[in-house]
TrEMBL record:
Single GO molecular function: acyltransferase activity, transferring groups other than amino-acyl groups
Top-rank taxon: Bacteria
Keyword Transferase: yes
Residue ranges constituting the N-acetyltransferase domain according to the UniProt record: 13-194
Record-given protein name: N-acetyltransferase
Source organism (scientific name): Dorea formicigenerans
Keyword Transferase set for record: yes
Alphabetical keyword list: Transferase
InterPro entries in the cross-refs: Acyl_CoA_acyltransferase, GNAT_dom, N-acetyltransferase
Amino acid sequence: MNTGRKIETKRLNLLPGVNMRDSKPFLKMLREDGDFQGYCGVKFSEKNLSKFATYFERTGQEECIYSIFPKDSMEKFIGYVGFHRELNGDYEIEFYIAKNYRRKGYCEEACKAVIKQIFGEGLSVDHNQITVDRLYATTLAENTPTVELLKKIGFHGDNPEDDPILVMQGFMDEDKEINICPVIKMIYEEKSMCT
């Protein structure tokens, strides 16, 4: 869980995620934005949605989630950005921006701030300072806006000349049915540092 401090950008305040403040608006976004399956890998249902009710205070895999608020409207939660550690030890960046705030540069601005922090002095997770020299990101192969955003902030294939890696990933829905989706995997390394 994020135990760090606020990060400020030109237009945003990134606050450590807190369920009490952020869960309700996040669940509302997932319910209403119309791209639940694209984000979660499974079809929308209230049961699948309920799995995200405690998203901001997860523990156990070095999760660090920042909630995103515009500086001019500190009560308006517009999404989140953060990272988590996978079982293999790799760190994955993750983000979500409300539909009405997309294509305005907010996600890019928030991602750059978190990347700069984790590659620099680090981020506090469960009161431990975490720094990395490599992140990766995955998204559905058909999610062109996210792939373009990741490229814009410095993500690339394993080798900078390579295209993103296409893998198949399974997501289990509430009926224990597995949905197999083509997923793009991209890498961000210290030499990619965004400014």
